Amino acid sequence: MEKMKFSGKCFCWLISLLGLSVQAQQISLQGFHYKDPYKLIPAFGGLEGTLFASATFRNQWQGIAGQPQTFDLRVNLPLYLINSGAGLAIGKDETGLGQILYVQPSFNRVFHFDQLLFSAAAQFQYAYHNFSGQLARTPDGDYTNGQIDHKDPLLDTRSSNFQRWDAGISVAFQYDLYKFGLAVSGIFENGKASLPVPYRNTRHYLLHASYEWAWGRFKFLPTFALYSDLKSSQTEIFLGGEYNGNIFGGMHIRGYDDNSIESLGISFGFELSSKWSVGYLHEFYLGKITGSQLPKSQEFGLFYHFGKAIGEGKKPPVLRSPRYFD
Q1: Spacing of C-alpha 238 from chain mean position
Q2: Nearest-angstrom CA–CA distance, 301 and 41
Q3: Which of 60, 225, 310, 325 is at a distance of 20 to 30 A from 6, taking alpha carbons?
């Protein structure tokens, strides 16, 4: 993960200083993965025991020019007849001068060992990239009267479009009230070598771990997440859960590596009906960017839980762990 060490005005300037080489941005942050772990780990597909879908919009680091914005739609369901699960993610990432449209179908095989549930998944990853040099702004550029002159021979004003194919693999474990998942995204690191904007994707590693326990009408769900490219990492700790089965939320703490805290977040949500619920996450920036307007992040979520078994065949035996074991 890249640490933010520059002001909002310098965000797009930095792009020009990179010359003609662009590295992949970090994996899109997902604040509601405690509500839907499939957002991080495709191997969790179908483990809810029914069709589950989520749609989220995240506006990251508001107040900084070119800040990341992500719209993400995911759906997954069990395939009981073949002891498997399947899912699909589609969405759009916007960061600085670039935009990425992605489609990511997945399939996972589920294995039962008494109370242990093990799932292994493969995910196909397709992305359409668009990079617009017209959106860049340089310190010496001339942008008056509608003209765009960057005054930089290395920074093109044209748009560059290309497609990229890649893959991901993941595993998930569920034992009693414990969940653990590990995923590798972009394993082939496919990119684009030709001008005007060479692009190299970066392999990322994601981890999700949670524990669930109940006390009266409260259900606590402490969750840990890790995003890493093995050079730098970002971690998140969520402390919260549900009340009465229809209200959820908690506190989020994000940090880079082991020496800084990036943000503190508060999320809450509630059921609209037995199948639909909504959520909101607000993150307060605690990092080192200075300026008149400190960045903040917001995320909105809409969730659908079908609530009934999908498909035919004999379901797994009833155990203590909820969802897939219903």
Answers
A1: 15
A2: 18
A3: 225
Six-digit token string for 121: 């998944």
DSSP element (H, E) containing 77: strand 69-79
Among residues 222, 219, 237, which one has the least CA distance to residue 31? 237
Question: Dihedral (C-alpha) 72, 162, 11, 292: value to the nearest 10 degrees?
Answer: -30
In 3D, which of 199, 192, 196 has the Cα closest to residue 153?
196
The amino acid sitting at 48 is E
81 is written with which tokens? 């007849």
Closest CA to 73 of 38, 48, 99, 44: 38
How long, in residues, is the chain?
A: 326
Per-residue model confidence as pLDDT tens digits over 149-165:
777 776 767 777 889 99
Q: Which residue has the tokens 């409260």?
A: 218
Strand ranges of the sheet holding 199-200, from the earlier edge strand across to the other edge? 22-23, 199-200, 191-192
Residue 153: burial class (beta carbons within 10 Å; 0-12, 13-18, 19+) = exposed
Residue 58: which pLDDT band, with cuts at 50, 70 and 90? very high
